[in-house]
């Protein structure tokens, strides 16, 4: 029975593929996570010599590491909020109004990605010295903001565009004012896209290390910048604990927003209109 | 309303980029004066511009090697990422079920892991005393060490860049109507033909977007090669920080950044072209 054989072969192939991809994606994370609880680990053992929670105490006893956590949990939400205030009106304008230079602006925002980040930060430092922004909260927020502009403009613009104009017009005909139409029709329908943009911006800010280090160090260390020195100066296990802590907010976000991101909101946002 | 983000980008990206480009060509006045004074081997243009900083870069045999290695990593990573993304997206489109859902679920996980952690985790996984070598050692076999190699950079770059490409590919292929696939099948097309002649062409625009974003990201990346890469050849993103911080040659650092920018702009131009073409086809322009 060739079909049955083919089915079985297909299943084995799929199972093999899943194991490979799971090993490729999850393997490094699990291997790192296990180090956070290991006393000693000798090559070529697949398991550590013993288990311990001591490394967690080490991390929480370091005031610098604790300050870095606080800094990160401050900068990421502030960046998202500021980015939303700066970019969301623009996203609406890009989506609903046609004005000269509209597409050039959109592409221009994208072009910021083409200049290498490291080179940009080095060049930005010149401007920051001139404006006295080095080692200031505002300077770091600006560095983080730069990384979020594309997400916060493009994805919500696509979300606003996908709201049918006929719905808005129907609400207008029923007597709703402009602001009311926006609040009760446009905004709720565009909300999933805006949410995805916020998540991407949060992650971008959360992840930012090079620019933060260049502008903020040593006054302001965030978790990713601290991670650089941790890897070099501490035992593997301490860095592993810190890595686990640093992953918690992102994993929570993943669980909360998986549906929207997988639903194509992100992909939809990157097509020029 | 559209102005605030454009102004932010102009002031904090546009101006610095112009300054850096000018600086790399020997314009050492104005805001560049401080960097020019502190830095070593800074060339000032007699006339309008000078290419001496670039000449100095290419006079060092290490730099062309770094450039070649960066382009190699970018090309291989982009191809691998697109290949994996297309593979999973095709499974998701043609064989929807728990297996393909699980694969795509696995594929987006890296999106949520900070790059610093990912790079470091991958370094440990493939290093001399890492899991892969430990596993092979159980059977008395010797696995290669990928930590601090160009291969390691490629592995980590694929890991980091897979989710975005996968999301784009999946969304592009979900948009292909069933009728098209059925029609091709009725005409006698096998799965391979359907993938190559129907699914991939129909999802071309999202795939090109994914490809350009991946290529641009990998070209200038710093964190991944900083953790996982070898000392030679180095990726250009690491070179920029090396020339700036270790060598105190800000002009050469700017020149490297401009070189990456030129290559990335070529890739970005392709993206814009593909997008406009699709917009024209759909009558949106």
Automatic annotation (TrEMBL), chain B:
Q: What does the UniProt entry say about where the protein is found?
A: Cell membrane
The record, for InterPro entries, names:
MetI-like, MetI-like_sf
Keywords, comma-separated and alphabetical: Cell membrane, Membrane, Transmembrane, Transmembrane helix, Transport
The protein's name is ABC transporter permease subunit
Similarity comment: family membership: Belongs to the binding-protein-dependent transport system permease family.
Matches recorded under CDD domains: TM_PBP2
**Hydrolase recorded as keyword:** no
Q: Which domain of life is it from?
A: Bacteria
Q: How does it sit in the membrane?
A: Multi-pass membrane protein
Presence of the UniProt keyword Ligase in the record: no
List residues of the ABC transmembrane type-1 domain. 67-271
Q: Where do transmembrane segments lie in this chain? A: 7-27, 67-91, 103-123, 143-167, 198-220, 253-274
């Amino acid at each position: 029975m060739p079909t049955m054989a083919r089915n079985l072969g297909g299943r084995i192939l799929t199972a093999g593929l899943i194991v490979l991809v799971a090993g490729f994606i999850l393997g490094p994370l699990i291997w790192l996570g296990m180090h956070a609880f290991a006393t000693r680990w000798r090559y070529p053992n697949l398991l550590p010599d013993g288990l311990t929670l001591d490394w967690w105490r080490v991390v929480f006893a370091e005031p610098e590491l604790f300050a870095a956590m606080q800094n990160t949990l401050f900068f990421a939400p502030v960046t998202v909020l500021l980015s939303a205030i700066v970019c969301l009106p623009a996203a609406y304008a890009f989506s609903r109004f046609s004005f000269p230079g509209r597409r050039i602006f959109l592409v221009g925002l994208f072009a910021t990605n083409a200049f290498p980040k490291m080179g940009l930060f080095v060049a930005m430092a010149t401007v920051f010295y001139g404006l006295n922004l080095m080692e200031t909260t505002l300077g770091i927020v600006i560095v983080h903001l730069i990384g979020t502009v594309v997400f916060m403009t493009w994805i919500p613009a696509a979300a606003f565009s996908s709201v049918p104009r006929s719905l808005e017009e129907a609400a207008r005909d029923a007597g709703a004012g402009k602001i009311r139409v926006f609040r009760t029709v446009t905004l709720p329908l565009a909300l999933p896209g805006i949410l995805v943009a916020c998540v991407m911006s949060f992650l971008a800010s959360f992840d930012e290390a090079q620019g933060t280090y260049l502008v903020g160090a040593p006054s302001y260390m965030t978790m990713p910048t601290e991670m650089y020195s941790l890897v070099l100066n501490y035992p593997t296990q301490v860095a592993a604990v810190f890595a686990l802590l640093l992953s918690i907010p992102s994993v929570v976000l993943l669980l909360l927003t998986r549906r929207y991101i997988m639903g194509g909101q992100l992909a939809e946002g990157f097509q020029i209109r | 309303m559209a102005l605030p983000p454009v102004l932010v980008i102009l002031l904090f990206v546009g101006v610095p980029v112009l300054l850096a480009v000018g600086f790399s060509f020997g314009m050492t006045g104005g805001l560049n004066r401080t960097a020019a004074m502190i830095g070593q081997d800074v060339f000032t243009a007699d006339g309008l511009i000078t290419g001496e900083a670039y000449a100095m870069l290419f006079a060092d045999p290490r730099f062309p090697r770094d450039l070649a290695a960066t382009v190699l990593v970018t090309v291989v990573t982009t191809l691998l990422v697109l290949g994996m993304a297309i593979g999973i997206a095709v499974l998701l489109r043609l064989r929807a079920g728990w297996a393909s859902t699980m694969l795509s679920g696995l594929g987006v996980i890296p999106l949520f892991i900070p790059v610093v952690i990912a790079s470091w985790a991958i370094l440990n996984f493939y290093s001399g005393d890492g899991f892969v070598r430990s596993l092979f050692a159980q059977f008395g076999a010797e696995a290669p060490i990928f930590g601090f190699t160009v291969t390691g950079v490629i592995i980590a770059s694929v890991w980091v860049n897979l989710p975005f490409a996968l999301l784009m590919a999946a969304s592009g292929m979900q948009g292909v109507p069933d009728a098209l696939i059925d029609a091709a099948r009725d005409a006698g097309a096998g799965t391979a033909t359907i993938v190559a002649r129907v699914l991939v062409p129909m999802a071309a625009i999202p795939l090109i977007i994914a490809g350009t974003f991946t290529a641009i990201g990998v070209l200038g990346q710093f964190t991944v090669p900083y953790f996982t890469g070898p000392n030679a050849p180095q990726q250009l993103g690491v070179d920029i920080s090396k020339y700036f911080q270790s060598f105190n040659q800000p002009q050469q650092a700017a020149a490297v950044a401009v070189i990456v920018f030129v290559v990335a702009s070529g890739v970005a131009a392709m993206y814009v072209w593909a997008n406009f073409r699709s917009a024209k086809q759909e009558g949106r322009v």
